[in-house]
Fold this sequence. Notes:
The chain is α/β, with parallel strands linked by helices. The chain has helices spanning about 25-50, 75-80, 80-90, 110-130, 150-165, 170, 185-195, 205-210, 215-225, 255-265, 280-295; strands at about 1-5, 55-60, 95-100, 140-145, 175, 200, 235-240, 270-275. It binds a DNA duplex through helix 4.
Amino acid sequence: MKIGYPCVNETLPCSAASTFRLASYSPERLEATVAANLACLRQILEWNVAHGLLFFRIGSDVVPFGSHEVNTFPWQERFAADFEAIGAYVRQHGLRISFHPDQFVVLNSPDPAIVRRSVEELVYQGAMLDLMGLDSTAKLQIHAGGAYGDKPAALARWAETFRTLVPEAVKTRLVVENDDRLYSLRECLGLHEVTGVPILFDNFHHECLNHGEPMREALRLAAATWHPTRDGVLMMDYSSQAPDERKGKHTDTLIPELFESFLTDLDGLDVDMMLEIKDKEASAVRAAQLLRGRGLLPPMPAGYAPPAFEPRPASPVTPPKKRITKPKA
DNA sequence: GGGCGTCAAGCGTAT
DNA sequence: ATACGCTTGACGCCC
């Protein structure tokens, strides 16, 4: 089992997701930003190894405007050696890597232009994994997309796009995650049956949207869609409901009791677990400690001391930030 | 040098 | 009709 967290390390003083405004685009700016992002990515991966966290989701903005037409900079060639060096580090330490292209990637949109841009974004993110020399167990994780008032037709469109418009290099890496409002685990499993695409399991989304499958059973249904050698072990996102917040909002920090309860449902199934929790590596470190205590992760080297994180206030003193409505002109 | 409006991209839902 | 949330963070203008 490998434990990880997405995109951002809040301990390190660098960011692997620096970007800039489209209006500020220049080749020089692009080159400098990618160089800084890759240098930081390397630092994050080293920090993770030092703390026993072997799963990481890289942010979509390593190459700003990576699939935008404004970006004609030959970043693949310019940074080939840098990507390869990071890939060598990943392989050396047995790290698992994923990307999660964001909400604009919609393979089942009725709008061909949206589908085309979505495929281009997947090609961009897949190319980074290719440049790192990682095998097909490194994944690109997306959702099934919109419903457009007719989910069966929308799912059929997804499968047809996958079959005809998604290049082979992306197909081998693409996985679909059950979401919390539209496409449940069961519907994603239907997509797997038609296309063979593995289903990335999100326990929190499954709590929000399901057909009565118990967690233990749901985990096994998803795990069965992953080919052991081609895809690797099941990737999953772990989170839980933020107390006293809108339904579907992720918790700010790991709630150990709920996590331990989830481990009961896991019941020995091997997974690589991404903690989608607001305080990032702090909760990942705690989860890893908890798992080591149960013998589910190997012990850290003698003398290892986990970092001390500032305990967060139990409830914010300031009211939640409210977006100010823009006054009409 | 702090505050805050705004940022490439889509979709469904709440109000 | 409009605003919001989603992996939100951080850019960059304004004072």
